[in-house]
Amino acid sequence: MESLLPPPQEQRILHFINSLEPLLSRKYIQKLINDLMNTLRLNYPKELNIILSKMPPEYTDIEKCAALISIKDENENLRDELYELMGRNPLLRNRIYTLMKKLHSADNIYITMELHKNRIRWHLQRIYRARNLITHKGEDIDYVNQLVENLHFYYHTIIDLIQEITSQNNNIDSLETVFNLVRLEHEAYIRLLKDSKEEKCNNKNFKLFLFCS
């Protein structure tokens, strides 16, 4: 992982965390929505299609699901209809409601992103400290298997992201450029959420707040 990073300009552990956190936070909100849609597709495909068919036709399916979840008041009736079609499934109903609470305003999306950022930074710090204990002190760590699983997931997430960005931008000539580009885009997105304050999601802004588009 370290070999992917640009040269450090600060303490190595901070460089490791600060460099990787924007890449691992990128598209986190879209992932939450996509995971929920996949769960609904798997368990309630007909019911979900009924609800999505009532959404604006110009939206993609993921945008329809995002609007259904994030636009609190205007789409409350559609969510209630989905609950009725689903029948008794309190866990999934609670998951939908909880996600709506997290994503219905710029403030709440910002808080969700900050909590995710803190988790990512804690995981990366734990991984790096374990690396130091193994490399420099030769210590045996009981929880190393869990850390390796996390690191394996992070590694493939970052490699996939690098491939995605380089395939879309022919003028990118180094990994450092990729890291800087993602960092700047991520900082702009967080700044947008902070500046929008208590603005709630609606049909005009939900794609900007959730997909930054």
Structural description of this entry:
There is one protein chain. By secondary structure, this protein is an all-alpha fold. 74% of the residues lie in helices and 0% in strands. It is built from 10 helices and no strands. It has 2 domains: 2-27 and 106-211, no CATH class; 29-103, no CATH class. The model has no long low-confidence stretch (mean pLDDT 92). The longest helix is centred in the middle third of the chain and has 32 residues, at 106-137.
Give the arrangement of secondary structure elements.
Layout: H1 12-25, H2 28-43, H3 45-52, H4 61-70, H5 76-86, H6 90-103, H7 106-137, H8 144-168, H9 175-196, H10 206-211
Helix pairs in contact: 1-7, 1-9, 2-3, 2-4, 2-6, 7-8, 7-9
Strand content range: under 5%
Q: What is the arithmetic mean of pLDDT?
A: 92
Structural class: mainly alpha
Helical residues, percent: over 70%
Termini, distance in Å? 30 Å
SSE topology string: HHHHHHHHHH
**Shape summary:** globular
DSSP helix count? Answer: 10
What attributes does this structure have?
213 residues; 10 helices
Summarize the structure.
With 213 residues, the chain is an all-alpha fold. It has helices at residues 12-25, 28-43, 45-52, 61-70, 76-86, 90-103, 106-137, 144-168, 175-196, 206-211.
